[in-house]
């Protein structure tokens, strides 16, 4: 088998897991090259975007029985997993806080995730130092990694010790994630009849999506839904911002602010929910309950609502409620350690892009569209749960052996040039920009965003 055939086989194996019932749409993969990694990152990008496209093809087939062909450019898919936005005359802020990063503890490595002010305060409070990287490094060096991880997480922060894949697979958190399906489906009952038929040109036109997601997987999912014509309304609290990533992921969405701890805002949210088709959120298990928005409340407000949600470390096991992000899951699950060891590096070596976030985002979009198809076919509503850690297993499970990796990425993707950039100017809140050309094509579908990326809170909280 040639290296190209092996890479195609890897994509097929991933799609077999994503789509256990098989696929009806014809898939063509174009482009060449791969991102440099000991894991098949380009194949994960290709497979997850393909799954979202296949879901669109199958949705349209529910109304006219015509299955559209799907094409994914593996090179552009890889590039979108890094960034699609090309600002003209301006730059977004750095995506990382100055304290965030990998630190050497007394017995190994640990990563602190401090982008959110509350998470930064928690880590600094545990370490007893100000927000100075050198002082943080000195303080971390006096701790054992697991003990510091426990202390930071216990204080409400985010941290992850670097483990090997063997350690992750043998531990209870890793075993729990391995036992979960990639996408866990739950039938939530009969859906009231709704006169909606997918538009062949803009398949999700007329679909209302309430977006309660944050960095980064959820916003990737809802960006894709918006590009298909969905009316996506993102809700954030008044104090929240993600300046380093909002220009990238807010394409096509309207954005409003509500403080859901206040009764009036909760009432407004429930009114929005009652008229929504989809709720996409990234709240950990039980977190919405603490806001008075538990499952029964949501179902009572919106019978037939489709929900798609994600968390970091899965929905069962001891870490089900743990805060986490892509870079932390890579440390916990052995991805960063495998990269460091197999590439002969001296520091943790994560994937070249935040592939767990992006892939989970496209898998969430796949789940949302598939749930719409099921509602059209059966009159039943459903919910789906996903996690970054389970997506990590989709990636690492295609590499033979736990302690070694055998993936050969082959030739790198060629450098970006003018042919890769779409001609349209996007008038964002921060200045003009352009985007990479779409990595996905579905026969007859106009995949584009009706709105440019804009600052959070640019719109009223209304449909």
Explain what this protein looks like in three dimensions.
With 463 residues, this protein is of the alpha/beta class. Helices cover 37% and strands 16% of the residues. It contains 16 helices and 16 strands. A 7-stranded mixed beta sheet has the order 7-13-12-11-8-9-10. Strands 1-2-16 form a 3-stranded mixed beta sheet. It has a 3-stranded antiparallel beta sheet with strand order 3-15-14, with no helix packed on it. Strand 1, helix 2 and strand 2 form a beta-alpha-beta unit. Helix 1 crosses helix 2, helix 2 runs parallel beside helix 15 and helix 15 packs across helix 16. The longest helix is centred in the N-terminal third of the chain and has 24 residues. The radius of gyration is 21 Å and the shape is globular. It starts with a helix and ends in a 21-residue tail after the last strand.
Topology (SSEs and partners):
Elements: H1 3-18, E1 27-30, H2 41-64, E2 70-73, H3 74-80, E3 85-87, E4 101-105, E5 108-112, H4 117-127, H5 133-141, H6 145-154, E6 159-161, H7 165-170, H8 172-179, E7 184-190, E8 208-212, H9 217-227, E9 231-236, H10 246-249, E10 254-257, H11 263-274, E11 278-281, H12 295-301, E12 306-311, H13 326-332, H14 335-342, H15 355-378, E13 380-387, H16 388-396, E14 426-428, E15 431-435, E16 440-442
Parallel strand pairs: 1-2, 8-9, 8-11, 9-10, 11-12, 12-13
Antiparallel strand pairs: 2-16, 3-15, 4-5, 5-6, 7-13, 14-15
**Poorly predicted regions:** none
Spatial sequence of strands, sheet with the most strands: 7-13-12-11-8-9-10
Number of strands: 16
Measured as a percent range, the helix fraction is 25-40%
Calculate Rg over CA atoms: 21 Å
| Helix/sheet category | alpha/beta
Overall residue-averaged pLDDT value: 94
Sheet having the most strands: 7 strands, mixed
Please state roughly what percent of the residues sit in beta strands, choosing from under 5%, 5-15%, 15-25%, 25-35%, 35-45% or over 45%. 15-25%
Q: How far apart lie the N and C ends?
A: 53 Å
Our count of helices gives 16
- What overall geometry do the principal axes of the alpha carbons give? globular
